[in-house]
């Protein structure tokens, strides 16, 4: 199955509005010939206005996916811009997850997943994620970890808020460092196209700082957590 094709060209049928969503977020059924799947559709029109982010959060959802691909950390489900039943918005592949699991439960019980969480932690710093809740980490049936809800990323001002602090003080492995450094050496144009000039510059700076330091940061303030945490 070609997921990007299905997202881009599939027929969209709204199945319902997602509970616990702060914006109008819809579960949709996708079909293209004999291919079917589900997506999460976030139309611009359903965005709740925020004082600290401009409208168009859906573009940040798309930018987050493109950054994750460019870094080759692959922690964000395929996400595209699509003109859907309620107008332009983001359309993200729905992860058929074990929804009772999330970062806190998995960190404790599954050391084999820690490298995936290290990738996510590095991604969140480069993307400046302000909302990495425990429940925004999903696990699928192949034990792949996926991050969701990346609308509040890429501010020019540093405002990381995440639950993933357990790796703080640890040296970043060389192959992950390379992925971070890539953002500095070859800033991904497809990501930059969705951001303001100061946001692009700040993203490159965050990547440079992280690569140069070579360590996962420690939250000295103890305040860089999202609310609620799960
Ligand atoms: N790609 C996805 N796969 C599976 N479930 C998802 C996905 N994206 C969102 N969800 C589910 O929908 C809920 C609301 O989505 P979220 O991204 O938090 O929306 P909002 O931007 O409105 O806060 C999430 O808590 C999660 O249960
Ligand atoms: Mg949310």
Structure characterization notes:
The chain has helices spanning 3-9, 57-71, 103-109, 114-127, 174-185, 189-192, 197-213; strands at residues 11-17, 26-32, 35-43, 79-84, 87-93, 137-139, 145-147. The chain has a five-stranded antiparallel beta sheet. A two-stranded antiparallel ribbon has the order 6-7. The two termini are 32 Å apart. Helix 4 packs across helix 7 (197-213) and helix 5 packs antiparallel against helix 7. It has seven helices and seven strands, in the order αβββαββααββααα. With 230 residues, it is an alpha+beta fold. The protein binds adenosine-5'-diphosphate (ADP) and magnesium ion (MG). Adenosine-5'-diphosphate binds next to strand 3.
Descriptors for this entry?
230 residues, alpha+beta, Transferase(Phosphotransferase), domain 1, 5-stranded antiparallel beta sheet, two-stranded antiparallel ribbon, 7 helices, 18% strand, binds adenosine-5'-diphosphate, binds magnesium ion
């Amino acid at each position: 199955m070609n997921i990007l094709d299905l997202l881009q060209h599939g027929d969209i049928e709204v199945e319902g509005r997602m509970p616990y969503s702060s914006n109008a977020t819809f579960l949709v059924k996708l079909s293209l010939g004999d291919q079917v799947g589900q997506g999460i559709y976030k139309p611009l029109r359903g965005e709740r206005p925020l004082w600290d982010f401009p409208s168009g959060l859906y573009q940040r959802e798309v930018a987050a996916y493109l950054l994750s691909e460019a870094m080759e950390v692959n922690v964000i489900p395929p996400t595209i811009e699509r003109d859907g039943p309620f107008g332009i918005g983001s359309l993200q592949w729905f992860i058929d997850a074990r929804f009772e699991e999330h970062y806190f439960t998995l960190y404790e019980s599954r050391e084999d997943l820690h490298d995936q969480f290290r990738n996510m932690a590095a991604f969140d710093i480069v993307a400046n994620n302000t909302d990495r809740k425990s429940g925004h980490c999903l696990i699928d049936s192949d034990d792949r970890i996926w991050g969701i809800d990346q609308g509040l990323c890429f501010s020019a001002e540093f405002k990381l808020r995440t639950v993933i602090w357990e790796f703080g003080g640890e040296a970043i492995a060389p192959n992950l460092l390379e992925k971070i450094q890539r953002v500095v050496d070859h800033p991904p144009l497809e990501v930059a196209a969705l951001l303001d000039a100061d946001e692009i510059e700040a993203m490159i700076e965050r990547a440079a700082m992280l690569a140069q330091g070579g360590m996962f940061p420690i939250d000295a303030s103890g305040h860089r957590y999202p609310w609620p945490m799960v």
